[in-house]
Amino acid sequence: MSWGKLLQPDLILGNSVLSITPEILQQHDLQGLVLDVDETLVPISMAEASDELRQWVECISPTVNLWLVSNNLSQVRISRIAKSLSLPYILGAQKPSRRKLRQAVTAMDLPIERVAMVGDRLFTDVL
Question: How many domains in the chain?
Fold first, then answer.
């Protein structure tokens, strides 16, 4: 497989994470999402999740396992966001290292091909 193919996302959504629906997940046979936090779910300038994001998590979580995985080292920031969304989290992931991404996938107890990474950066937010 060529590098170009390896570095090409399987799915590109032009909008925010809020555009991911249960129907999209079902269409792609996804049962788990590993979500980047900073600039994907929450702007770096904000310390809390928006009401819209909380509503999205409430809507989508019955159909898919969700984990937050962030390179951020701030326990205070990431734990506050995770707690407000009632989601498990891993911080200090050192992405693109896959060690902590695998930790999240293992905790989901799902086959890797049923889990997607959602992020804002091509070279770090990959499974």
Answer: 1
